[in-house]
Amino acid sequence: MKNIPINKPILDDREMEIVEKVISERYFVDQSFEGGKYVMMFEGELGSYLKAKHAIAVNSGTSAIIAALLAAGIERGDEVIVPSLTFIATANAVRAVGARPIFADIDEYYTLDPAEVKKKLNKRVKAIIPVHLYGHTANMDELNELANEFGIYVIEDAAQSLGSTYYGRQTSTIGDMGCISFYSSKVITTGEGGAIITDNDELAEKLKMVRNHGFDREGVLSGYGLNFRMQQISAAIGYEQIKKLPNFLEKRERNAYSYIKELEGVSDRIILPPIRDNSKYNWYLFTVRHTKRETVMVTLKKNGVDSRIYYDPPVHRTPTYASQISLPITEMVARDVLSLPANPIVSEDDVVEISQLLKQSLN
Q: How far is 207 from 54, CA to CA, in rounded Å?
């Protein structure tokens, strides 16, 4: 039987060799302000790829969002607008700094709807966190315009969207700060890790302090911080992974458009991923909407194909938040989304087979 995972880290001898080099050097952590040799190497490659001034590596995508919020001065009593159709870490990071997540509904692309965000704005709101879910790009022009009007931060949650572009700009580089995840299932991995991207020198200094217990570049304890440092082994893996990103993205795009070709004849019954104008997705996930998704998942599993539901319940309906607010689009989408594998190990023949299984489920 086949085994087609929803996502899987892809590594070869280059990652093995650099990890062995780090181990041979007995160089695992570095408490310096700049993060150490391999962290700096990885940050340099990442920043160059994104055409960003600063890339600050940390130990997880969640840490990245918390660090960005702390650098922005978000604190108890503040509010931050987030979507509910996202991984719970987006909202939990807001709560971790003492602020309150305010859930707003999404648009037809499964990302924050600026019109809904505007309804939630008040004097307590200090930031907006648009999530580029599945690699789909949020409406950054309108969200930035709202943020500028109200004098608040835009912190992109680009955990799933490394390589996606909006009007030619990389996600994570369009707001004040952008947060990336390198968890093992992401488009590239460091095992576990994250990064914050910014072109703002002052924010970059604060972020480097936050990730290292609040120590400044002179080694003086100058503010609040935590241990968000990325390990040297993780950074070394990332240094090799980022070089492979263009090839990974090319294969994901090939698979996504193969799915579209195979399924466009039944798009009245299986809703295909909506593609925003002037955007290019990384196709972290190929997410359809299917009213019989549980039945489809059983069929796919029997045929060795992994598929997932991201996310049901949405965050505002989880026991952690248990909110009674109504987010009709979020709740409708959460009821029938189904993510299919589009990762680089998926072949075009696999896509055809998976598509046939989906079409058969309509009978």
A: 10
- What share of residues in the chain are helix, strand, coil (percent, to 5)? 40, 15, 45
pLDDT tens for residues 121-141? 999 999 999 999 999 999 999
* CA distance linking residue 135 with residue 171, whole number of Å: 9
- Picking from 194, 198, 220, the residue whose alpha carbon sits closest to that of residue 209 is 220
How many C-beta atoms surround the C-beta of residue 16 within 10 A? Answer: 12
Q: Which two tokens stand for residue 197?
A: 């991207």
Residue type present at position 198: T
C-alpha neighbours within 13 Å on the C-beta side of residue 272: 18
- The answer to whether residues 166 and 137 touch, using CB atoms and an 8 Å cutoff, is yes
Residue 106 DSSP symbol: B
Token pair, residue 210, equals 């936050």
Where does residue 350 fall: left (phi above 0), alpha (psi -120 to 50 degrees), or beta otherwise? alpha
Residue 310's contacts (CB-CB under 8 Å, 6 or more residues apart) are 87, 133, 134, 285, 287, 337, 339
Provide the 8-state DSSP code for 160.
T
Smallest CA-to-CA distance from 339 within 189, 89, 133 is with 133
Token pair 């248990």 in the structure block, residue: 322
Rounded to whole angstroms, the Cα distance separating 95 from 98 reads 5
Whether residue 110 has a cis bond before it, omega within 30° of 0: no
Span 18-77, pLDDT tens digits: 999 999 999 999 999 999 999 999 999 999 999 999 999 999 999 999 999 999 999 999
